[in-house]
Amino acid sequence: MASIVDITMAKKFVQLLVFNLTLTEIVLSGNVLIWPTDGSHWLNIKVILEELTQRNHSVTVLTSSTTLFISSSPDLLVDFEEIPVSVNKSYLESLIEHMIIMWMDHKPTPLTLWAFYKELGKLLEAFFLINVQLCDRVINNLTLMARLQRGGFDVLVADPVTLCSELLALKLGIPFVYTLRFSPASTVERHCGKIPAPVSYVPAALSELTDRMTFGERVKNIFSYFLQDYIFHSHWREWDSYYSKTLGRPTTLCETMSKAEIWLIRTYWDFEFPRPYLPNFEFVGGLHCKPAKPLPPEMEEFVQSSGEDGVVVFSLGSMVKNLTEEKANLIASAFAQIPQKVLWRYKGKEPATIGPNTRLFDWIPQNDLLGHPKTKAFITHGGTNGIYEAIYHGVPMVGVPLFGDQYDNVAHMKAKGAAVEVNMYTMTSADLLGALRAVINDPSYKENAMRLSRIHRDQPMKPLDRAVFWVEFVMRHKGANHLRVAAHDLSWFQYHSLDVIGFLLACVITAMLLVTKCCLFSYHKFIKTGKSIKRD
Amino acid sequence: MASIVDITMAKKFVQLLVFNLTLTEIVLSGNVLIWPTDGSHWLNIKVILEELTQRNHSVTVLTSSTTLFISSSPDLLVDFEEIPVSVNKSYLESLIEHMIIMWMDHKPTPLTLWAFYKELGKLLEAFFLINVQLCDRVINNLTLMARLQRGGFDVLVADPVTLCSELLALKLGIPFVYTLRFSPASTVERHCGKIPAPVSYVPAALSELTDRMTFGERVKNIFSYFLQDYIFHSHWREWDSYYSKTLGRPTTLCETMSKAEIWLIRTYWDFEFPRPYLPNFEFVGGLHCKPAKPLPPEMEEFVQSSGEDGVVVFSLGSMVKNLTEEKANLIASAFAQIPQKVLWRYKGKEPATIGPNTRLFDWIPQNDLLGHPKTKAFITHGGTNGIYEAIYHGVPMVGVPLFGDQYDNVAHMKAKGAAVEVNMYTMTSADLLGALRAVINDPSYKENAMRLSRIHRDQPMKPLDRAVFWVEFVMRHKGANHLRVAAHDLSWFQYHSLDVIGFLLACVITAMLLVTKCCLFSYHKFIKTGKSIKRD
């Protein structure tokens, strides 16, 4: 394995040659270490690191040898440092498939979350072990650590869904920046980032609630926060001891996470309900969005053949490959009844009921299709990346959420009037047809999707530029301490002013006791004395 | 008085001729109505409206006929609509002078604020009457209102220290944007804008506390919030009935203020302690800051004559013109003992103790002096505008606060390590000399001032551009509803989840009662029955 320092130096000269950059620009560039999370998370962080390389920074990605999406490619001017782990790819895939199936069978609600959590226990334990192994093999590998030290990194950019980046940054003595979609019930953001979340109008992530809740929903919301906080805290316990051991002093995972300089949250007010936040939180949702490119000729021809009716795009994302035959037929027969042409990303067997207006594709250029003027609707599983592409292009949605945060994502789009939800497991052909006809024919869905698109596009600065600005800010200033709230230095009872309230209550009670005592004394002194005088 | 519509149309054509703009640009421009507040507030809003005219918008300023600072000028391409009020300028000046003298004699602390407020009662009443008169003569002047309606305004930009802009915007059916430095204890921002302010680390405005408080200071902070909230609420009562009467339905001042689309706060994290805020709050402090221009030749010569020692700039702002002879002598004798040259903005009699290194000026180009490389320190009364110029240019300060928010402003700069405070009323020559020597000779003050300067200058977007962006956003989209938190639609007990907490407590108590009852029942049923069986 080549030394990171060598690679970094070599890269700088390659950049000098390839981009014809001046020496000043080279000198001004920095070194960025990336600690990514696999899956769709990688797609998002990849956009940031591509922009960082465009801006002449040297980027090194630290990742396990077993990944699903994270990989080098010739167009990516990035160094990969692979950490060998004893888990093979097929085992990882089976674990994830297991998780998806479990989720699809037992969709967790705030009330069933506990049972769901227990059932997922083994799986979470496996993930924990993989993460610990990765962490061990970085932190305890003295040769690697020495090489990273020599790499002269200015900042570590991490997706905190994979833990340990904080330890690495502290060990290397460099600041770190988080890029994060959410943690369940915002537990990490609230407890470690100190972002306030009034339970009366900030719905817990995954709760599928909106910012306008009935009394019953607000009760549900409080339970949702309680339960998810409890789960997190019990999960954290294992990491607390690991972090304390590694740092050689008593600490907690949360305390270490709280040292993040900037939190780049992958949503914005087009998707998110407006809520309080802090100066070191930046909402950069949809930073991967970009204008559509022309479609492949054959696909363009198919799309154009739809005439005035336009097309519908259907994708369940990269995780779900096949459906049962029954489900596929049900969907295909609904599609056969609409005048639009349908582009369906599907790797399974062609359904028997497929209409002449529907075409199956192994892969679709989703962003280019959503940006096509003929596209009337997007049927989506509700992943954040896909939803953001639909928002960017102003396309109304039919949400068929399957697992994870997809239910919550679709709930957001429903609340904003840009989507209709269909239950994938109970739906009939008529349900899907009804939903599709609604979003295509009722102009309010298109109007709302276009409103979200305008909100997304009309920002003071593009989300990607803001994200990269703050990464570079941390590099330039070795942190962003001026944005860090003093709440981090308060205990929980100080934060909630319980000591002050207790003191004031004690004062009031003491005052009341004194007054009562004085009254009683006066009563005894004067009334009783008066009586005895009278009696005399 | 020429019709606003006529003026607007005429101005567009003048702009077309003067700036050689294309018709498309003219069509894209909008009409902005400004409701300013006098004094230093005007200097700030003026920068925004100058930028708006630069961007081709037609700007109309609505103001009373009696103003101190607000005035038209040939370089200001703005229409002024003057509302005649029955208060003359000299009376207004005497009121303000009275207020300054009162403040200087009885500097209010959280504990003396109540007495101060009572003493200020008459003055506040006078201000209230002036504001009501201005409001009456706008809202009830049907001719003026009809003209304003015809003016086709897209947005109203208001400084809410002068009330009534909200009523005008509602009557005209246009959105409004606030530009505001602060309200005491952030009462308006908290109650009407719904910005959260955890009392444990967000110091009440005017409290002179920082974000890092001892237990005693946190007690003081809570009192500060309570007291200032109470004062505001008692002050609001009069306006509540006025607003209800004008709008013809029961409402409150606060409810009407809560409809502001955007709150442009005139501070940033260089000055402010980091705190939670909301998506429709933008911190645009120092939007008036700009690079220094060359000094007048004579002044430049004096500055250059200071050699390596450099110069000190001293100004007490535009409100305080003279000092007592004793105070002026005390200050001058301190200046005479430093090696720096001193530029003192002072209109009073030349002090007898003045040294050869000190020169008095009726007026100084403050920003250009602060931006001069020879400037070593700035002695300031602590107005926000001056402090921001010092931050921008990285000049350490000696704060001699006099009244209003100046004590609090200087407390911020002290906490950030960029200033030393001297008490104007009790100081000796040695105190001032010591403070001056500290900020000039102890490098930490210069370093901290430079750190604040870097924070101020290294933002994703300049404060003025952000302020104008959001004004234009509101014009383009007829509001910014997507940034408005749902908290506005909750009652205070719903907001604090008191109904949910009450319900959960009731559930717990009911459950406990039921369990106790069951236990008692079981006890009676089984134990007593058992005993009676035994007895049998």
Automatic annotation (TrEMBL), chains A, B:
Its main location: membrane. Pfam families: UDPGT. It is found in: Membrane. This is glucuronosyltransferase. Keywords: Glycosyltransferase, Membrane, Signal, Transferase, Transmembrane, Transmembrane helix. The gene is UGT2A2. It is a single-pass membrane protein. Its EC number is 2.4.1.17. One of its GO terms (molecular function) is glucuronosyltransferase activity. The keyword Glycosyltransferase applies. It comes from the Eukaryota. Belongs to the UDP-glycosyltransferase family. It is an enzyme of class 2 (transferase). One of its GO terms (cellular component) is membrane. The chain crosses the membrane at residues 500-523.
